[in-house]
Amino acid sequence: MKDINLTELLKRYFGFDSFKGDQEAIIKNVLSGHDTFVLMPTGGGKSLCYQLPALLMDGTSIVISPLIALMKNQVDAIRQVSEDDGIAHFINSSLNKSEIDRVKKDILSGRTKLLYVAPESLTKEDNVDFLSKVKISFYAVDEAHCISEWGHDFRPEYRRIRPIIEQIGHAPVIALTATATDKVRGDIKKNLGMQNAKDFKSSFNRANLYYEVRPKTKNVESDITRFILQNPGKSGIVYCLSRKKVEGLAEVLRANNINARPYHAGMDSQTRSQTQDDFIMERIDVIVATIAFGMGIDKPDVRFVIHYDIPKSLEGYYQETGRAGRDGGEGVCLTYYSPKDLQKLEKFMEGKPVAEQDIGRQLLQETQAYVESSVCRRRVLLHYFGEEYPKDNCGNCDNCRQPKTRKEATEELVKALQVIVAVKEKFKVDYIVDMLVGRETDEVIAHRHGELDCFGCGEGKERHFWNAVIRQGMIMGYIEKEVENYGLLKVTAQGREFLKKPRTFMITEDNEYGDYDEAIPTGSSGAIDETLLNMLRDLRKQTSRKLDVPPYVIFQDNSLEEMASIYPTDIEDLQNITGVGQGKAKRYGADFCKLIADYCKENEIEPMADLRVRTVANKSKSKVSIIQGIDRQMSFSDIAKSLGKDMDELLDEIEAIVYSGTKLNIDYYITEVMDEDHMWDIYDYFHEESETDSLDEAYDILGEDYTEEEIRLVRVKFLSELAN
């Protein structure tokens, strides 16, 4: 093996002129019979690291892969490099007995160089007995992060791989993953019994990927639809956490003439396999999927990856966004974020073992730190994987393209470091922040840390400010998280030096994302006509004075912004604007459409009718059910139950109905759940005092005697009576 020309063999088998990155060194290590650990980002060429040595070595290599759906694709790809189809096979539950017998015959004859198996198939007694009679060249454990509970896709069956290897017969192991922190890397090596493996770690920086986090509003489906319509014919993936959302969003996209299909684990395997093939063969442009889709997908020209929901971990996020731009071309990574999504994910953890909940919450905190951070997203992401990014501004993320003002925070970092040292470096971020702001939790009392001089030394500043200090202190190398007891904050040698001799430390305060209910501009088109927008605002103001109602009652800001992007010139077009239904369009729309039409004519602008976002029937069905339920004076809890929604989701839909111009009389329900004086206090606030329909502002001014639900209900009554 020593004298072979690997570059020549690479060209012969795969048609490439040269290796990428560490590929050649990895292959040489495998050919030498050594255990090998490969950490290489998506698109770096991991599969070649075991495919080429498998073709060159005596015996059959066993490739352990988690997704049955992908094995056929991988086997088909390898068969392209040989005239003999027997060179690669898979064994999994999709094969019948005669097909498995054929595979075994090819293996025993020495034709098969690569055998792909799922870990579940590997552990079957029949397969263990058969493989123990075969000469194994090496074992390749693909997606090796599945071994670790700290990885983003933990699979308990992966923990059994090492004992099964011992049963089948000893051979070198190559473990491969695209995402692994130091904690996960240690777990993988320990569980596979390969602590002495040679490490090959490639840079995690994907310079061609653009990262952006957008606030998640009620208009998120329209925002995604418009983005895709503005990128016609491009391949993309949209990830959602629930199967229901996958189906619903795929339907919305298809209603808007986007060639999209859903993909999730609840679909039959034949449909999933067909959908995946159609995407790879470009018969489908967009896949809307749960995270069941994408692992190992070899499609180099995915141009965008959108996260409708915040991912459960940064490893998962990196793996999923890494499917964009694998050819080095354009790759846009959009993520939508609302704090409510975090609360939902935490709620899903209830009922799981305590240790699992703890791991899940810490991983969620890392994701929260990423989405809320105002520093370079690339820098935050690489830091999480233990890699230092040397620049302050990468020029290819939303935070770097629109940087915030930096503030001096030397004194604050000193306080944070002093607290970490004072509590003996044995606590996590939340506890350190509790100490800084002087919050006497049960844990603080139990440790008697309230008696320390540093307790409350950061009073006067909000928790999110202290979180930013700690996060950015970590990026700068002053603070680190312990690997073994993950999450415990430690002061580094550099941090101790800073304590002795403080120097300038600048931070940018974290981004704040509003409540899901607020009408936050989507920024979806990236091309709002500011001149037209100001004219529309003036018209709204004139109309509001004439009718003696607040401006937002007529059209919300985000509706005006959409008008100034798409230029609706008739009532039909206007009804496709977010928050504008038939009633509102007919009542107020004529003047606004005339203004837009005149403006387009004067400025020779072509209205963007092709970017209308159409709704789908199931939403209309839900709307009709809600209106009928309210007409019959059903209790809101009964309406919500009949639609499979919680109260928050029902109120979201009721608000959308009223905002778009439909009148609803909910007096019967308000009378049942609210004191009449309470109701009139809130009503008068919206009628007399407020210039905005913001919930936060209403809550601040009205005070804690009024609940959020009460304010939302009266806001619906007010808008229904005055606007519609």
Write the topology of this structure.
Elements lengths: L5 H9 L8 H9 L4 E4 L8 H9 L3 E5 L3 H12 L8 E4 L5 H12 L5 E4 L1 H4 L2 H7 L4 E6 L19 H8 L4 E5 L4 H11 L5 E4 L7 E7 L4 H10 L5 E5 L3 H13 L4 E4 L5 H12 L5 E4 L12 E6 L6 H8 L9 E7 L1 H11 L4 H19 L4 H8 L13 H4 L5 E2 L1 H13 L6 H9 L4 H5 L16 H13 L3 E3 L7 E3 L1 H8 L5 E2 L22 H18 L3 H4 L2 H10 L4 H4 L7 H22 L13 H15 L4 H8 L3 H13 L7 H7 L2 H14 L5 H8 L5 H16 L1
Parallel strand pairs: 1-6, 1-7, 2-4, 2-5, 3-4, 5-6, 8-13, 9-11, 9-12, 10-11, 12-13
Antiparallel strand pairs: 14-17, 15-16
Broad CATH class of the largest domain: Alpha Beta
Termini Cα gap = 80 Å
Structural class per helix/strand content?
alpha/beta
Order of strands in the sheet with the most strands?
Answer: 3-4-2-5-6-1-7
Q: Can you give the helix content as a percent range?
A: 40-55%
Strand % is 5-15%
- The count of β-strands is 17
CATH H-level superfamily title of the largest domain: P-loop containing nucleotide triphosphate hydrolases
General shape: globular
Low-confidence stretches: 515-526
The major beta sheet can be summarized as: 7 strands, parallel
Q: Give the number of helices.
A: 34
| Radius of gyration from CA coordinates | 29 Å
**How many individual domains?**
5
Second-tier CATH architecture of the largest domain: 3-Layer(aba) Sandwich
CATH topology of the largest domain: Rossmann fold
Please give a handful of descriptors for the protein shown.
724 residues; alpha/beta; Rossmann fold; Arc Repressor Mutant, subunit A; 5 domains; 7-stranded parallel beta sheet; 6-stranded parallel beta sheet; 17 strands
